[in-house]
Write a structure and sequence with these properties.
heterodimer; A: 266 residues; alpha/beta; 9-stranded mixed beta sheet; two-stranded antiparallel ribbon; 11 strands; 26% helix; 22% strand; globular; disordered C terminus; B: 93 residues; alpha+beta; 4-stranded antiparallel beta sheet; 2 helices; 4 strands
């Protein structure tokens, strides 16, 4: 099982994602360069946070046309699991894989602090290990995180249960104060119609250790679990459900491929 | 450049769609008020892009720019755009 982490010029959470996959849940992680045309057999794709292409024009607008994104879009349209975190969420919206857009925070400030989000739905490859209603503490770090969309899109997201994370207070209540950026209906994360593509503004990859908190680990455990449950999790190999874990253990490659370990060194 | 191409100066104005927050405009409005300017009821902000491009005709230039706007320059979810095409100059061969 191999998880691909796309690196755009300006990505800066790629190493955190790598560690969340590798040290966090013990799966193989591989960096995918934005100019590449090859997903290298990865069974899931993470689009990390950062400031791809300097956020020029609009956050995520240029990254969407990277060569690798053509492959990621095809992979997602085939049902492959894709997670966009922060700038990755912005890229997914710009690419049309998720509806709506992320605009300047209503405060006009770059917000960098922990928030609480409530898990609204657990039937995605990135939330299946959580319980509905779980309140997670995760950091945010963004200037453009205000989720907006046409009313009809918002209504569809709600009725189709595609709001996956919502900003809440410590008690799990959706309040105006708990909303760090003015997102409509406190939306922090959504999924696509197929429920395989998820985007969120908070950073689960930054809370996968005892020191910083472990509330984000569930995102990565969910992914590994869902890939195991479907054999490889890709649409090309979906016939091994049932013997997933055994099959995975047998074919799991070394977690620390030399090139990968080297690349992840600070 | 092929001899039948004309040069156009194009201006594209990209502004937030109705109902989409324009925090930059709001901030400028507040600052104007703080400075004592009265009578400003609204400030709208946006982005101006200037292009120089070659195309066989004004119609072709407009088609081309419209495609650019739809694909990259504006995000129709949050923005609208206006295109102005300035009078063509015959390109020197």
């Amino acid at each position: 099982m191999k998880i691909g982490i796309v690196r755009f010029p300006g990505s800066n959470c790629d190493q955190d994602c790598h560690r969340a996959v590798d040290e966090g849940v013990g799966a193989e992680a591989a960096y995918l360069w934005h100019k590449s045309h090859d997903l290298e057999g990865c069974q899931a794709i993470l689009l990390p946070g950062g400031f791809s292409y300097g956020d020029h024009l609009r956050a995520g607008a240029i990254a969407r046309f990277s060569p690798i994104m053509r492959e990621v879009i095809a992979f997602a349209r085939d049902g492959g699991p894709v997670l966009g975190i922060c700038n990755g969420f912005q890229v997914l919206c710009e690419a049309g894989l998720l509806p709506g857009a992320l605009v300047r925070n209503d405060s006009l400030r770059f917000r960098s602090h922990p928030v609480r989000v409530r898990v609204e739905q657990t039937d995605t490859p990135f939330t299946s290990e959580y319980e509905e209603g779980d309140v997670l503490r995760m950091p945010i770090a963004h200037g453009e995180g205000q989720y907006v969309a046409d009313q009809s899109v918002i209504d569809a997201l709600e009725s189709e249960r595609r709001v996956i994370f919502r900003y809440v207070d410590e008690l799990g209540q959706r309040t105006e104060e708990a909303n760090p950026n003015g997102s409509v209906r406190n939306i922090a994360g959504i999924c696509d119609e197929g429920r395989r593509v998820v985007g969120l503004m908070p950073h689960p990859e930054r809370v996968v250790s005892k020191l910083l908190g472990t509330d984000g680990l569930g995102v990565f455990h969910s992914l590994i679990g869902s890939l195991q449950a479907t054999g490889d999790g890709t649409t090309t190999q979906t016939t091994r459900a049932g013997d997933g874990p055994a099959a995975q253990a047998a074919e799991a490659p070394a977690t620390h491929a030399p090139g990968v370990a080297e690349a992840s060194a600070p | 450049m092929p001899a039948n191409q004309l040069s156009f100066r194009v201006e594209i104005r990209v502004t937030p769609r109705e109902g989409i927050v324009d925090p930059e405009g709001q901030t400028i409005a507040r600052a104007l008020e703080d400075l004592g300017y009265r009578g400003v009821s609204r400030v709208g902000s946006g982005r101006l892009l200037k292009l120089e491009l070659q195309a066989p005709s004004g119609e072709d230039a407009r088609d081309l720019v419209t495609r650019m706007c739809e694909e990259l320059i504006a995000n129709p979810v949050i923005e609208r755009y206006e295109v102005q095409i300035r009078s063509p100059e015959t390109a020197s061969p």
